[in-house]
Write a structure and sequence with these properties.
With 224 residues, this protein is mainly α. The chain has two domains: 8-55, Homeodomain-like (Arc Repressor Mutant, subunit A), CATH 1.10.10; 62-221, Tetracycline Repressor, domain 2 (Orthogonal Bundle), CATH 1.10.357.10. 74% of the residues lie in helices and 3% in strands. It contains nine helices and two strands, in the order H-H-H-H-H-H-H-E-H-H-E. Strands 1-2 form a two-stranded antiparallel sheet. Helix 1 (8-30) crosses helix 2 (37-44) and helix 4 crosses helix 5 (87-104). The radius of gyration is 21 Å and the shape is elongated. The termini are far apart.
């Protein structure tokens, strides 16, 4: 049986996929700044014209890789949170996986920080980066919301995502410490801190001790 020739859309998708794979390799090998569109195109077996027909440039290609990676991570952490029996297991399970990732490939986090710092200096690129990075806050916010509901605590709109921002910030801050000085940061420290923090926060909400003047983080306890 004669195989049907790939459609134009299928060829374009294949080319894009090969360029993304090549970009991931070159960025990992060279870092974001030292990587060039010429090297990425050569790695993929294409001309720079093929790269520019799929991406507006090196930044756009990196953002596409970042978007794919974040989507994979959100799914992975979502599965960890779903398997967990309570907030403690959610916090420790997610934190332990993050520490394992840093041990497996510390250079990957360094690459992420390199691009993060670069994007922060460009208003347009910063907005694009934030739009993708926000998926982590939303995912961790869902974790907080689920745990709060199981504890009989109702959070005001927006509070869960803000607490998700805290989770994300703690995770990335701890990663900086871990990558810089691995022996100074025990693997279990992040999980312990997250578990303790959110247990304390949710208990404070339930007891009516959350500051009422902090509108952005106002919450109320729900009667069981």
């Amino acid at each position: 049986m004669t195989r049907a020739r790939p459609t134009r859309e299928e060829r374009k998708a294949r080319t894009r996929g090969l360029l993304l794979d090549a970009g991931a390799k070159v960025f990992a090998r060279r870092g974001f700044h030292a990587a060039s569109v010429e090297e990425i195109a050569e790695e993929a077996g294409f001309s720079t014209g093929a790269l520019y027909s799929n991406f507006s440039g090196k930044e756009d290609l990196f953002l596409a890789l970042l978007e794919e990676e974040i989507a994979d991570d959100v799914r992975k952490y979502g599965e960890i949170f779903e398997r967990a029996r309570d907030l403690d297991e959610q916090a420790r399970g997610g934190a332990d996986e993050w520490m394992r990732e840093l041990q497996r490939d510390p250079e990957h986090f360094a690459l992420f920080i390199e691009f993060w710092a670069y994007a922060a200096r460009d208003p347009d690129l910063r907005r694009k980066f934030a739009a993708r990075f926000g998926a982590f806050r939303e995912a961790f916010g869902r974790m907080v919301e689920k745990a709060a509901a199981e504890m009989g605590v109702e959070l005001a709109p927006g509070v869960a995502e803000q607490l998700g921002t805290v989770v994300n910030a703690l995770g990335n801050g701890m990663a900086l410490e871990k990558v810089s000085d691995p022996d100074a940061v025990p693997d279990e420290l992040l999980g312990f801190v997250l578990s303790f923090l959110f247990q304390a926060l949710l208990e404070a909400v339930r007891a009516g001790q959350f500051p009422e003047d902090a509108q952005a983080t106002r919450a109320r306890a729900r009667t069981r």
